[in-house]
Amino acid sequence: MNTFGPEKLYGIIGHPLGHTMSPLLHNWGFGEFGIPAVYMAWPTEPDKVASFMQTFRNLPISGASVTIPHKLSVMNYIDQLTERAEAVGAVNTLYWRGDKIVGDNTDAAGVSEPLRSCCSQVEKALLIGAGGAARAAIFGLKSLDIKNIYITNRTRSKADDLASEFGISTIDWEDRGDQHFDLIVNSTALGMSGKNEKINPMIMDHQDSKTTVYDLVYNPMETVLIKEARAKGCRVMHGIEMFLHQGMEQFRIWTGKDLDALKARELLLAHL
Ligand code: NAP
Question: Which DSSP category does 220 fall into?
């Protein structure tokens, strides 16, 4: 546990880590509040997670972010799981409670918090995708008390598994465009820069100005889904919001302070 030295140490583990904006966000936050702390990037290959966790336990590291592909494997090396990390089934945040390492998950807050103020009217939501981000998204959507949550995925069995685990309903991939939704959340890799950039995960014929579209993909910012949603008059929300809000929640856990969302968003957008 961190007890010596005036400067606290935080960081992120993942592999690869080249593009991470977490150091930018947290180091800026420490500066804003005059907190003597530093946040570093620690690229960690999958077979090095055990030794990293040994280091976390023995060195004065106050907290860490955990990203792909370690969100499941770190769970083998912690002492306590928060309720939400247990429900999501993954850990993206480590911190100390006394002499115990706690594993938490702030990804769900990254989905729910940007929607909280704008989506009190949402009765029917569609989540597209059934991978790791989808688990956090379902937990986040459920925390907003949305009555009807549907999930659709190219591989139907994965959607069915999540639907039965979380008590939501499945829609066939081929039928996802057949009805109106108040909220659509994309958690697939479709629209991401690279080979999937031009592919829209949704068929938008039945959506209109009463639909909110939240694309968790943030590279590029203006995905093909966001562009088409805008053309249909939908309210749109960019994937950067998920990154921002999961990071703000981590900062709150580690420091007890609330980052200014407007300024933090500006910082990230300037970087992107
Ligand atoms: P993942 O576990 O690998 O899941 C990928 C999902 O994309 C699966 O549902 C997969 O469907 C679907 N998919 C991939 N290629 C497809 C295709 N050609 N056609 C239809 N569906 C396809 O990945 P993840 O961790 O959930 O991340 C998914 C996306 O979320 C990422 O691309 C990333 O952009 C975004 N994300 C954003 C943030 C943020 O902070 N904004 C955080 C995490 C993730 P199958 O099951 O059929 O393969």
Answer: S
Does the CA dihedral 268-40-194-189 come out positive or negative?
Answer: negative
Model confidence, pTM = 0.94
Q: Which CATH superfamily is domain 109-238 in?
A: NAD(P)-binding Rossmann-like Domain (3.40.50.720)
Q: How far apart are CA 141 and CA 272, in angstroms?
A: 27
Q: What's the chain's length in residues?
A: 272
Number of Cβ atoms within 10 Å of the Cβ of 191: 26
- For 122, the token pair is 């949402």
**Smallest CA separation from ligand 1 atom 38, residue:** 216
Second CATH level (architecture) for the domain 8-105+242-271: 3-Layer(aba) Sandwich (3.40)
For 81-133, write each residue's pLDDT tens digit: 999 999 999 999 999 999 999 999 999 999 999 999 888 889 999 999 999 89
Distance, in Å, from the CA atom of 29 to the CA atom of 21, rounded to the nearest integer, reads 13
For ligand 1, pick from 70, 187, 196, 248 the residue to mutate: most ligand atoms within 8 Å of CB.
187
How many CB atoms are closer than 10 A to CB 172?
11
